[in-house]
Amino acid sequence: MINDVIVVNNLVKKYKKAKENAVDNVSFRVRKGEFFAFLGPNGAGKTTTISILTTILAKTSGEVKIAGYDIEKQQKEVRKNIGVIFQKPSLDENLTAEENIRLHAILYGLYPFAPTYSQMPATYKRKVAQLTELLDIGKEIFNPIKTYSGGMKRKLEIIRSLMHSPKVLFLDEPTSGLDPVSRKNLWEYLSGVRKSRKTTIFLTTHYLEEAEDADEVCIINHGKIVAIGAPGKIKNNGTRSLEEAYIKIIEEDVRA
Amino acid sequence: MYELNAIISIAYRDVLKFLRDRSRIVATFIFPFIFIGVLGGSLQSNLGGEVGFNFLTFMFTGVLAQTLFQSAAAGIISLIEDRENDFSQEMFVSPVSRYTIIIGKILGESVVAYLQAVGVVVFALLIGVPMVFSQLVWLIPIGIIICLFGGAFGVLVMSQLSSQRAANQIFPFLIFPQFFLAGVFTPMKHLPIYLFILSRISPMTYAVDLARGIYYLGKPEFNRLVIYNPVLDLIIITIFTILMITVGTFFFVRNERNR
Fold this sequence. Notes:
The structure holds 2 protein chains of 2 kinds. Chain A is an alpha/beta fold. Helix content of chain A is 34%, strand content 23%. In chain A, strands 6-7-8-3-9-10 form a 6-stranded mixed sheet, sandwiched between helices. A 4-stranded antiparallel sheet of chain A has the order 2-1-4-5. In chain A, strand 4 and strand 5 form a beta hairpin. Chain A starts with a strand and ends with a helix. Chain B has one domain (2-257). Chain B contains 11 helices and no strands. The chains are: A alpha/beta, B mainly alpha. The A-B interface holds A 15-16, 54-58, 76, 79-80, 82, 84, 86, 88-95, 99-100, 102-104, 106-109, 112-113, 115, 144 and B 1-2, 5-6, 8-10, 12-13, 16-17, 20-21, 85-97, 257-259.
């Protein structure tokens, strides 16, 4: 289907020296513009799956297509079409916010290399000006990342990952370690991005309330999908919140 | 063109990082200062008269090559740390090829090593190490070759190490013995067989010997202090460099995704 921006068929990942499969025959599809929440306990295989989908880890078997490109045979095309927010921050602390953004833009082939901000083209400068407005900062964009708060850093990472207008944005526990206010801010920003850009969002999180708004929720445990569907459908087992439904599903899976 | 831009920006980042890291700048100069200033100075004052060549100059040429080689190698190995922490994750999901990342890294760390070498030369001038300036100029192009050679050594070592912890523990064992086996501090012309073998399989030996070969070219000390003809050193270094980069990059690219 053309409308499926992520297609995963029978994906298996077995780490070297591991006895069991970290990801065990997983299949799912994500439609264009969808908000897809990928949930599961620690060690369920969420990060492994996201690493394979973002081409930084080789799969054992199965088929994965992102934006119509095969993750193994058309790696470069896949990478051009995705943005990734990692569990651990991936900003360079010694560089300024603007330098981090500039480096990203050059690595994605948006602009040719220039050693200083002032030598960059006007289109780039306009973009940076927009970003500073979005972040609600001014000259601080030229300060080292070290001086930024945790929430600001995450926001900056998201802004950076949107520079090359990816079709899919992968977010691996983006709000872990943030205070409630920063989390709320970040989510307001992200839903704005979704509405204005129609970017597909693939999210993993431990904060279940963040997944309440998702179009589709997928719960995995021990590398296998144990539930998949709209939040309303997942909650159909007599529970009021996604969190309750989630806990029930995981506990039943443990007993089974 | 695109990959070239990426190579330059990756290299540029390394140089910027070095220039902004004051404690690292200080730390990189400590060893050369101890080697040339303390070790070289004391040996020259106490034994210098008997050996028949200037120990300070000898030590200086050795330390210069060693600094270039080691700094480039250690810089490449920092890619492991990068991979675990900050920015490299970002590099590794970007559309640039792995080869571009490695080439950019070698280039960047070579420039960093060069900056350090300039510091060593300035220090040597300040403490009055006797040197012939025209000979020193020849070391400018030779320095680039030594950096690339050290970078290639770094790529090979890095490809075999899986974590920063392993790198921190193993790298000193791979580099420290080479100080002595490469003859940074002492001439290595005549050696018992076991030392001869160890010395000749240490890559740094050829880096140090090439630098000295160029510096002492046409001087009376040449035959006593230089092991091989510089042309031979250059051939060995070229072969070593190509081999280490090819094998190292192959394993690095493979291991990185196949976990």
